[in-house]
Amino acid sequence: MYVDPKRNEHAGNLRWLMAYCKPDLPRAVGGLTLYAVSAAMALVTPLISARIVDQVIEQHQLQLLAKLCILMIVVTIVRDVAYYGNAMWMERFGQNTVFRLVSDEYEKLHTLDFDYFNHTRTGDIMSRMTSDTDAIRHLLSWVSYQAINCVVMFVGALAMMTSIDWRLALALACVTPFLFVLTRKLSQHAKPLFLAIRDSLASMNSMVEENIEGNRVVKAFVREDHETEKFDERNDDYMERNMDMALNTRRYMPWLDGLGFSLQLITIALGGFLVLKGNMTLGGLVAFSSYLWMIDSPVRQSGWLVNDWQRFNASCVKIRRLLTATPRIRELHPRTDGGDGHGAATTTDAAAPDHINGAIRFEHVDFAFPDDPDTPILTDIDFAVPAGARLGILGETGAGKSTLVNMIARFYDPTHGRVLIDGVDARDWPLRTLRSQVSVVAQDTFLFSDTIGGNISFGVDGGRTPSPEYIRHIAFIAGADDFIERMPEGYDTVVGERGVGLSGGQKQRLSLARAIADDPSILIMDDTTSAVDMETEAKIRRHLNELDGDKTIVTIAHRISSIKDSDLILVLEHGRIVERGTHEELVAKHGRYRAIYHRQLGAQSGQAQGYTTDDETGAR
């Protein structure tokens, strides 16, 4: 179930949440019905006590004692059973609602693009998925019941008290205006404090998550004390935010508690006076005193319920921001303006087919990140690669290589120009179709806490479970089969979180195997073999060339040996293509590529002919 939060963005949090509650509203109605039974029994109990005092004790009608005691037991049992049923149904109501909400949050995260995660802390996201959703569950399952109970008990008890003695009831009612004033002030001061607590918790969670991920770096640089100091600062801030909340509670709760005690004082003083004057029976005073807790308890709980309500509102604000976040990369209808934003069509804009052959074309592409449009990352990138060709990209760190290839899988859209796949603008391809046939092996290798076989088969589309033979064949192509076989349980070996326990080269080869397991039409390798020795890299390149089908392979590398066999090599500097051509053409140009080539292979300008470009290791 998906509920569009934009439809309710100007509505209150409760109205927005009702869309998630709707499937379980019958359960909530049932819970409220049981609550009504429980409340009715609670209101009847003091009347039975009054009859016992007036008729049995005062008037000595002993024959009524057994009947009244049995009635009291029955009423108590009915009340407790109804209360238990109500508690169970309301808890289920809250849990089911939060289940749907968390499912939507998780699905929403998968629709968001790189830009969102670049600007949102991991701890903030985790807080929205855990503590914020628990605040909503708490309100639905407990706070809502307690709030209704406070209102019903307060009004019901006041009505019953009025029927017993209106003068004493009026005296108690005079206290209520002060209650509402204090509760409102508490609420106004609590809201910003809960938002501050929420932000402080998210900051602390982000730091903890970051230190867990980077624990090896911390230990390697002996920075445990430094990181502990940083955590202590955030922990102190979180404590201070909670202390601010506690101080706000301390400011108002004593007054609310004092109002509760004043109710008891009024009842004892004025009620006792009325009994002594004969204007009220002793049983009436006993019943009145029994109803007093129904007045006193709401007064005492109002402050805590207001705090829970403000916590709920703060959590809803954060969750709704997540659910209303708009990804920049969205499905678009086929355009007729050429796609460059200026109405100049250069190729047909027909609807994209279901299969990708692998032809890539960049048409004068410029790119800048949305949050920094004045800093160009890529400028006038223009090239074409036919299906089944090999494209190599070389350049210094920060030249824009990774950004360029990320546009092929449409992780980013060009600021100007177009990226065409098989002659169709990438923005016109269905995202699922495009990304299922374009596999990317990113620089930052990531492995799941799963078996090695499970990590490799993760790349298989459609949820299919490939055969062990197929998995082993793919691992062989990626140069991973040898080291996998030497592991304790082979392909069933469970790797740690993010591949803990594996070397950089092993993780890169497993990431490559995962990428080619689904037989993509376009394979993008972003510095995939940087941690692999040159001999193993040469074997991987040879195996990739032997793959069935014509795959377009895009390779980003810093080593000439990784891309020298490419059909087209691009050399990037500061986001621009400064050289292009084959390996032989670029070496003959005596430009930037030749300088890198000589520096890496240790050649002198007069000895360039002494190197064999088809050698696996690139050695002389």
Automatic annotation (TrEMBL):
GO terms for cellular component: plasma membrane. This is Multidrug ABC transporter ATP-binding protein. It comes from the Bacteria. It comes from Bifidobacterium castoris. InterPro entries: AAA+_ATPase, ABC1_TM_dom, ABC1_TM_sf, ABC_transporter-like_ATP-bd, ABC_transporter-like_CS, P-loop_NTPase, Type_1_exporter. Residues 29-311 form the ABC transmembrane type-1 domain. It holds the Pfam family ABC_tran. Keywords: ATP-binding, Cell inner membrane, Cell membrane, Membrane, Nucleotide-binding, Transmembrane, Transmembrane helix, Transport. Belongs to the ABC transporter superfamily. Siderophore-Fe(3+) uptake transporter (SIUT) (TC 3.A.1.21) family. SUPFAM superfamilies: ABC transporter transmembrane region, P-loop containing nucleoside triphosphate hydrolases. GO terms for molecular function: ABC-type oligopeptide transporter activity; ATP binding; ATP hydrolysis activity. It is found in: Cell inner membrane. Residues 360-599 form the ABC transporter domain. It is a multi-pass membrane protein. SMART domains: AAA (SM00382). The chain crosses the membrane at residues 32-52, 64-82, 139-160, 166-183, 255-276. PROSITE patterns: ABC_TM1F, ABC_TRANSPORTER_1, ABC_TRANSPORTER_2.
